[in-house]
Amino acid sequence: MKDPYKLEILHSTKIFKKNGKEFVALKDTTLQIPEGRFISIIGPSGCGKSTLFNIIAGLIKPTYGQVLLDGQDIMGKTGHVGYMLQKDLLLPWRTILENIVLGLEVKGGKRKDNIAKAMPLINKYGLKGFENHYPNELSGGMRQRAALLRTVLYDSEIILLDEPFGALDAQTRLMMQNWLLQIWADLKKTILFVTHDIDEAIYLSDDIYVLSPRPGRLKTKITVDLPRPRTAETMSSTSYVELKQLLLALLKDEDNPEDNRQRII
Q: Which one, of 240, 40, 21, lies nearest residue 159 by Cα?
């Protein structure tokens, strides 16, 4: 029987030690994510969002807990997810095409095959004609497109995006959000998206996980029951405004966490 969840982070706790002292970055956190969902994770700075992503990516191991992909243990194992940080981390001496195929090179793919896989994405998702440019010749939004295509092309079913649009201006950010939703709809990936922007979380997501201040723990999971595709009209609807007010209240209400309670809005 197929596991009902694509990705499971079960009762994960991470304790760091420094200078003889311990601090808890993440505490008894559980996320169970079905395949193909768009998940946003929000919470105050220092609540353990990046720690959670590093655990999922296998870069660090939780002190306690499990990480399962399709029911199989991947704790401490890298290469199972695509991971993109806020900075695009494009290599300045490589062209956009060469940057996009970098992950495939690391996997050992042949150059001809790598280019054959990359060019359809480049042509379809707004980088046609820029494949031979260098990163310093592109705008911030275009660089983020290249970085995201590199992450997608790594061919993982799960993509972790850690505030990828945080440094962009509002107009470019909205354009990139819609661009990301197009890729998600086309390629059927499971996406986990960290953001500090509540509007961004609502606009993009199927589900929103709210984490508490450090030690980070799950306060609540909210399912966003707003129709897709979402538009400017969606963002002014009563349901949207009510959901935003609820999320603001949850982030403010640090003394009364609603641990593991699920809501549908």
A: 40
Place of tokens 């002292």: 21
Alpha-carbon distance of 181 to 58, in angstroms, equals 26
Closest by Cα among 104, 99, 133, 132 to 117 = 104
Buried b (16+ CB within 10 A) or exposed e, 126-165: bbeebbeebbeebeebbbbbbbbbbbbbbebbbbbbbbbb
Tell me the two tokens of residue 123: 């042509």
For 142-151, what is each residue's pLDDT tens digit?
Answer: 998 999 999 9
Residue 128 φ/ψ, nearest 5 degrees:
-60, 130
Domains annotated on the chain, with CATH: 1-80+190-265 (3.40.50.300)
Tell me the one-letter amino acid at 211: L
* pTM assigned to the model: 0.89
For 119-140, the pLDDT digits (tens) are 999 998 889 999 999 999 998 8
Check residue 264 and give its pLDDT: 39
